[in-house]
Design a protein that fits this description.
Strands 3-2-1-4-5-10-9-6-7-8 form a 10-stranded mixed β-sheet, with helices on both faces. It has 3 domains: 411 residues, Amino acid/polyamine transporter I, CATH 1.20.1740; 130 residues, Rossmann fold (3-Layer(aba) Sandwich); 141 residues, 3-Layer(aba) Sandwich (Rossmann fold), CATH 3.40.50.620. The protein has 740 residues and is of the alpha/beta class. The two termini are 52 Å apart. It is elongated. The chain contains 29 helices and 10 strands.
Length: 740
């Protein structure tokens, strides 16, 4: 299935189907030109003058340079990624998903789609401002709605319009800038430079960061060329060269334009007339033509791009009604997604017309793009940090580059609008939490497992360099050796309660030569543990001698960081007692606790409510240091089981006479307090021989006994029958402590 999806996304990244062998673009047509046209658009013509008037020349230069710090670092970082792998449809969504998974990609891709959808309104409003400058009698809202309808109609009929007209529009934009250059000199009726620049403005129309938020959409076009990766002849060279040269050129244009505006008009003129460039240029019509062409082309481009991001999200079933939005028309256009994207843009347009026009839209777009750019830098930083062999881009950048980009995006977001930034981040995290619960498929290029492996490797190295503290960090890590999956199935509920939620079940399947089919079902068993939230893994070992297999595995795992600390063995009526005896004897040498479960064939674990823990007579010393009493592991496991069952514990002791009973009760009460056992834990002292006492205490769902150093397994089977329920025989490993 994923092969088909990836193939489809590859076609989408080209803008059309490649079935007929569509022509490939070079760097200039495929990357440089669309990137330049997107950057030199609405904000350049309609808001750069306002930025200079509000912030002054020095403030405007700071804003332009800060914006380009973000785009340059992000452009460099993303160029590095795309030269390491092919980027599919969806631009930033594809890059993030291919590295950090569909959950992260979707949580960023949805806001990215909304930003692109809202961008349609931004460019329509800019086009409307330009139109009204020529025809001031025309109602603004009528022009905006008619322009939107025209843009939508063109994209509906032919989504390739923007691509086919980009060279003409680039020439028009270039000619308009030439008209600006000519106006710098005293020619004909143009006086040239007449004003002394104001270095720092008074920010009367908004503070520094509000001004930055209005300007930043000007430089958000760097993803245009990257999204063309599938349509380029040589993407590994074309994308870095085309993207960075476009950023460099446009930065020079904006800096030069800021200087020109500061010398050609007063701050009052710049603030009061958003179309001042028309009045001050050498040829007014050149600026008007450039404004109309650039803004209309950008609107077309946004309406072409947004549905493809939505379709990419739908193809991976990330959004509701994915089947509907993933569909294409006969010509390969995502018509359903196009209608939805158009609806988002139209609603944003109406809201902007009511609430404040272009500036109100620009701030929202800025926040969404900053989140996206920040995550793109995070992706590259992670790839570099993992230092995997597979990450070998042909265009490499220093690790400091994405780090600066990430920090810049994050800090600028909160400086612009802390409240909206916090809301946006919470929304992204909520989307991630929702998608994480959806159990989405993983992509082959997903590096999350490598990320966690690297973190685990770092943690292991740090832990091994520190003094061990097994008593404080103890948790049940169970080694369960079996010959067949059925051998362990009956103990599933017990092991689940014993290890949930932080413990581990390590199933060791030992099979004779040519007998691997005997342990085929073990992976299903470990999958069931994982489904219940318990970390479980299976190891298969070919060994004819079961005892030797357990001994070998125990020796191998003994010096691992997360080594098993409990050997779990079932004790049945027909168990091979000689084999069990050897396993118990050999395990004692490896500092591993032992739990032998004698499961009642009928009542099983009963109601999972009461656990009886038998404590041996501690007289005459009655010392609560349990190291020599073989009781630490029993109490820890009893506590663990009681917590998971919501049950209670009874500490039971048999004594010889009434005189000792009082001291025994005091000892058990003190033990309950020091061990911090649940309030429901009780002490039960019976004056009777041990075997008689077993039948006198309340019947438990599970009874725990200590396992002697030299156990009598036949006697243990009799004890299990005597309690008329399930019993577990436990021996400490010597490294756990219930008092810790």
């Amino acid at each position: 299935m994923f092969a088909n999806i990836q193939s489809k996304l590859g076609q989408l990244s080209n803008g059309d189907s490649n079935d007929g062998g569509s022509p490939k673009f070079g760097m200039f047509a495929g990357v440089f030109t669309p990137t330049v046209l997107t950057i030199l658009g609405a904000i350049m013509y309609l808001r750069t003058g306002w930025v200079v008037g509000n912030a002054g020349l020095g403030g405007a230069i700071m804003i332009i340079l800060l914006a380009h710090v973000i785009t340059i670092t992000t452009g460099l970082a993303v160029s590095s990624v795309v030269t390491n792998t092919r980027v599919g449809a969806g631009g930033a969504f594809a890059i993030i998903s291919q590295s950090l998974g569909l959950e992260v990609g979707g949580s960023i891709g949805i806001p990215l789609f909304l930003a692109q959808g809202i961008s349609i309104a931004l460019y329509i409003l800019a086009f409307t401002e330009s139109w009204v400058r020529i025809f001031p009698a025309h109602p603004e809202w009528v022009i905006a709605i008619l322009s939107f309808a025209l843009v939508f109609a063109i994209v509906y009929v032919s989504a390739q319009f923007a691509s086919k007209t980009q060279f003409l529009i680039l020439i028009i934009v270039g000619f308009s800038l030439f008209s600006v250059l000519l106006a710098s000199f005293p020619l004909m009726d143009h006086a040239g430079f007449t004003e002394t620049p104001t270095f720092i403005g008074d920010f009367s129309d908004g503070n520094f960061w509000q001004t930055f938020a209005v300007f930043f959409p000007a430089v958000t076009g760097i993803m245009v060329g990257i999204s063309m990766s599938g349509s380029l002849r040589n993407p590994r060279e074309d994308i870095p060269i085309g993207t960075m040269s476009a950023i460099g050129l446009t930065m020079v244009v904006y800096l030069a334009l800021a200087y020109w505006l500061s010398r050609i008009a007063t701050p009052e003129e710049l603030l009061g007339n958003t179309t001042l460039m028309v009045d001050k240029a050498f040829w007014s019509w050149a600026i008007l033509t450039g404004m109309l062409g650039a803004t209309f082309s950008s609107a077309l481009g946004s309406l072409v791009a947004a549905p493809r991001v939505m379709q990419a999200l739908a193809l991976y079933k990330i959004i509701p009604f994915s089947g509907f939005f993933a569909k294409e028309a006969g010509n390969g256009e995502p018509r359903n997604a196009m209608f939805f994207a158009g609806g988002v843009g139209f609603i944003a347009l109406l809201s902007a017309l009511v609430s404040g026009g272009l500036d109100s839209i620009a701030g929202v777009i800025t926040m969404f793009f900053l989140i996206t750019y920040s995550m793109l830098n995070v992706v590259v930083l992670i790839e570099q940090t993992l230092d995997t062999v597979s990450f070998r881009p042909t265009f490499s950048v220093a690790r400091i580059v994405p780090f600066i980009g990430m920090l810049s995006c994050t800090f600028v977001m909160f400086l612009i609008n802390p409240t909206f930034s916090l809301v946006a981040i919470v929304a992204v995290l909520a989307l991630y939490a929702y998608l994480a619960r959806r159990d989405l498929d993983s992509l082959d290029s997903d590096v999350r497992s490598g990320l966690f492996s690297s973190m685990a490797e770092w943690a292991v190295k740090r832990a091994q360099s520190m003094q061990a503290a097994p008593e404080r960090t103890w948790r049940p890590i169970v080694l369960a050796p079996v010959r067949t999956a059925d051998f362990l199935s009956g103990s599933y509920l017990f092991l689940k309660a014993l290890t949930s939620p932080k413990g581990t079940v390590h199933v060791l399947g030992i099979y004779p030569p040519d007998g691997e089919e005997q342990v085929e079902g073990l992976s299903l068993l470990t999958d069931a543990f994982r489904d219940d939230g318990i970390y479980a893994l299976t190891t298969l070992l070919e060994e004819a001698d079961f005892i030797n297999g357990v001994r070998t595995a125990t020796q191998v795992l003994r010096y691992t960081l997360f080594r098993p600390n409990i050997l779990f063995l079932p004790l049945h009526a027909d168990s091979n007692l000689d084999e069990l005896q050897q396993l118990v004897d050999k395990t004692a040498a490896y500092q591993m606790g032992i739990a032998l479960l004698a499961r009642h064939p009928i009542v099983e674990l009963g109601r999972e409510q009461l656990i009886n823990v038998w404590v041996s007579n501690q007289g005459p010393a009655w010392n609560t240091d349990l190291k020599e009493s073989n009781l630490d592991l029993s109490l820890l496991l009893a506590y663990h089981l009681a917590q998971n069952w919501g049950g209670r514990i009874a500490l039971c002791m048999a004594v010889d006479d009434e005189a000792i009973a009082e001291r025994a009760n005091a000892f058990l009460a003190e033990l309950i307090s020091l061990a911090r056992l649940p309030n429901s834990t009780t002490a039960v002292v019976t004056v009777a021989p041990f075997l008689d006492a077993i039948t006198q205490v309340p019947r438990a769902d599970l009874t725990m006994f200590g396992l002697a150093k030299e156990p009598d397994l036949i006697f243990m089977q009799k004890l299990a029958q005597l309690v008329n329920g399930s019993a577990v025989f436990i021996r400490d490993s010597g490294v756990e402590s219930v008092m810790a």
